[in-house]
Design brief:
409 residues, mainly alpha, Ammonium transporter fold, globular
Length: 409
């Protein structure tokens, strides 16, 4: 048992766990005063309910059986066939043969990813969705979108066997959640009561700080052990976020004539999302290029959303969806086996295996599936329980209407 790596993975798990409250603060600051608790509970409830699903069968569907397939099996449901001495490499010696940490540490780490991914989607349909409908959506989306994607890419499934790589969640987390968010926007429609803007930018800043801090565990921890790639992923995470933040700040400064704090914060999150799939597969120089690209492309995406008047309230699609897609594509361009031998050379470094094309095809297929599935499942849920909020309820505020609580007295 590698004691050092085990300790590091427990710390990384804690860091990723901290990202969900960070997301709640980030989203909470962006909405109006009457809807703060509604958006925050959607993140916090995922910490509870997703853990239940993960323990019951989610972890098993992601990481047991189904070699080269879409889903795993139920061999590890309820953590059956495991004990405190079971190591990660025992469940898949081909995929995890060099990693000597307890299975339970890996179970906890991956659970934190499962918790935050559907919570990302909530920023798009803020102020417009009822809580019972959200709980059904959370459950179904995890089972039919998140779990199969994890298995196919991180569990040795079909996409991994084909040669697709995603270091920490460009496809699995950000692209899937971002385009699911866009589908949710189209289904629920525009807000009937338009808020004046973020009610607390300091709260957004607190959320950004927690997200940025937790992202070191998100990316560096995805190496699953302590080595030179762990350090590389850590550094690349910070570099890309920093360059994206400054790039966004400068662009907005040019067009708005003032340096916007909210723009700086949004740019940082865009950089974090974009570097995620590539963090352990590219050089730090490439991370600089990825960060700058994130600042430019995600800014353009948000501007395009505003032009078309898509009511993606908190820019989930423009930041996470577009960022995840760009990150996967740029991994296909900048990947280097000289950096990480478990990856592939990208388009700029002698791609001989069609790696770039595989990255492009896989991310396109995933975003199409996530978009269509999300729209259809929301349509079906509406037959079981109403999804949308009425204009009168929106005017009163969802904190009071749905939860009988108020953030500010």
């Amino acid at each position: 048992m590698d004691i050092g790596s085990t300790g590091f993975m427990l710390i990384a798990s804690s860091l990723v766990m901290l990202m969900t409250p960070g997301l709640a603060f980030f989203y909470g600051g962006l909405v109006g005063r009457k809807n703060v608790l509604t958006i925050m509970i959607q993140s916090f409830v995922s910490m509870g309910w997703t853990t239940v699903l993960w323990w019951a069968f989610g972890f098993s569907l992601c990481f047991s059986g189904g070699h080269g397939g879409i889903f795993g099996d139920f061999r590890l449901a309820f953590l059956a066939n495991t004990n405190l001495n079971t190591t990660l490499k025992e469940i898949n010696p081909i995929l995890f043969g060099t990693i000597n940490i307890p299975l339970y540490a890996f179970f906890a780490y991956q659970m934190m990813f499962a918790i935050i991914t559907p919570a990302l989607i909530t920023g798009a349909f803020t102020n417009r969705v009822r809580f019972p409908a959200y709980m059904i959506f959370l459950t179904v989306w995890l089972i039919f979108v998140y779990f199969p994607l994890v298995h196919m890419i991180w569990g040795g499934g079909a996409l991994y066997q084909w040669g697709v790589r995603d270091f920490a969640g460009g496809i699995v987390v950000h692209a899937s959640a971002g385009f699911a968010a866009l589908a949710a926007v189209f289904y629920v429609g525009k807000r009937k009561v338009v808020e004046s803007g973020p009610h607390s930018i300091p709260l957004v800043a607190l959320g950004t700080g927690l997200l940025w801090f937790g992202w070191y565990g998100f990316n560096a921890g995805s190496e699953l052990q302590v080595d030179n790639i762990t350090v590389l992923a850590f550094i690349n995470t910070d570099v890309a976020a920093s360059f994206a933040a400054i790039t966004w700040l400068v662009i907005e400064w040019i067009f708005a004539r003032k340096p916007k704090f909210l723009g700086l914060l949004t740019g940082a999150v865009a950089g974090l999302a974009t570097i995620t799939p590539a963090a352990g597969y590219v050089s730090t120089t490439s991370a600089v290029a990825i960060g700058i690209s994130a600042g430019i492309v995600c800014y353009v995406a948000v501007s395009m959303k505003n032009k078309f008047k898509w009511d993606d309230a908190l820019d989930v699609w423009g930041v996470h969806g577009v960022g995840g897609v760009i990150g996967i594509i740029m991994l296909g361009m900048f990947g280097m086996t000289a950096v990480n031998s478990s990856g592939f050379n990208g388009l700029f470094f002698g791609d001989t295996s069609g790696f770039f094309l595989k990255q492009l095809i896989s991310v396109l297929c995933v975003i199409i599936y996530a978009f269509i599935f999300t729209y259809v499942v929301l349509f079906i849920i509406n037959f079981l329980t109403p999804v949308k909020i009425s204009k009168e309820e929106e005017e009163i505020g969802l904190d009071s209407v749905l939860h009988g609580e108020e953030a500010y007295l």
